[in-house]
Every structure is written in structure tokens, then in C-alpha cells.
Amino acid sequence: MDPKTAALNYLAYINSRGIKNIKSTKSEKTPTSLSSEDTSTSTTLDSNVKKVASLKNVFDTDTLFEDAESFASLDEVRANIGDCKKCQLYEYRNNIVFGEGNPAAKLMFIGEGPGHDEDETGKPFVGRAGKLLTKIIEAMGLKRDDVYIANIVKCRPPANRTPLEDEVINCAPYLMQQIKVIKPRIIVTLGSPATCTLLNEKIKISLIRGTFYDWKEGIKLMPTFHPAYLLRNPNDKRLVWEDMQKVMPLIKE
Question: pTM for the complete prediction?
């Protein structure tokens, strides 16, 4: 794909997310209505999305999940992916980054997409953001081998840009297949792209992080900030820790 087309695609994508102006990144703050004191119980999406104007579906996640083929193991899911060339991301990748961890994990972390280090190694979350995620997991009294870590796309977007909608649509069935095999009790979505994908809404992560949502087949979903965001905004690490403190009791049940 030529640079002009890629740029136009990206601008169209961020416009579809409701971003009208590109500004410098500033620390996101959690609104009072979603503070740690108010978000201990599960909720449906409707109670919070009203705070975000002009919401539109990203795509039909319900259909993607229901139509995703069921497999007996993660090895079968990986074999099904093969040398995938469904979208343009295959042109840029060194390795497909499938996912890693316990195939029967109670807790699953889902991020946006592989970065440089992940593309080189074929493993998710091994760069700076990955090392911070590992520290978070260990602070929860767990090891990386106890959880499962994946992304909404399996190939690195060029320059680590946000995956385009068609890229997510083509890759999401693989993630749904992984979730069906693992059957986690809790999914933690890291950042807006993963959260928007699984909740099927365009939502600001700062508005809904720290709140449990009833997802599918009894799975609870907890949105929180992406570790890469925390590297830029270290003062917000405490907010993610508040979120993980809500997750930990459910893992022990």
C-alpha cells in the first residue's frame, strides 16, 4: 500500500472513532461517577455510554463471536490462522503474534496489537509496555504463565499505528476463537481499541475504566488503561492498580 493511501485510511479510521482534531496527548482522568467507590458491581453498557455523544457500532461483535468457529485447542486455532493474508498487515510483519499463556486461564488480557519487539519475537507484550504488564500481573500475585495475553490483531501495524477497522474485522474472529477455547472468567481490555472492539461501541476508556461489564457466556469484562499509556502517564498507574484490585477477588472464587 502506498503512503498516501495508508495515510487516508488512517485519517478515515480516526475520524470514525470520533476524533476530529489531533492534539498532543494529555493525561486522562477518571470521572467522579466512575470512581473506585462507585464501580464495585457489574453493569450493562447502557448506563455509561450515554455520556459519550454520537456512539456508533464499530462492527457486530455479537455476530463475530457467535459465528467464530469453535476449536478444541489453541493449537488448532493457530493452525487455522496459518500464514494469514486477509489484510494488508501481513505485508509488514516478521511474525504473527498469536498469544501466550495458560490455555485454561481464568484471566485474559487483551491489548491492541504487536509492537516492534513483539513482531521480532512472535510473543505478546515483551517490550517496555509488556514489562510493565508483567509487573502488574506479578503485583496481583500471579505469573504470566497463569494468565493469557493476546491482542485484537495478530500482526504489527506499521509505525505502531492503531489498527484500522477492516484489519480488526478480519482478525477478530481469531481472537473470538481463542476466547472460546480459553473460556476465561474475566477479560481485562487494555486501552480503547481493545475495549471498543469487545464492547462493540466507540467509547473513551477514561469514562468506563474500572467498571465490570457482563460480556458473553458469563465472562466479565474490565476495561483499563493500556500499559503504553501508563509509560507516558505514570501518575495513572494507581488507577490501573485500583482496577486490578477489583479483578483479584473474582479470580480466587
Answer: 0.78
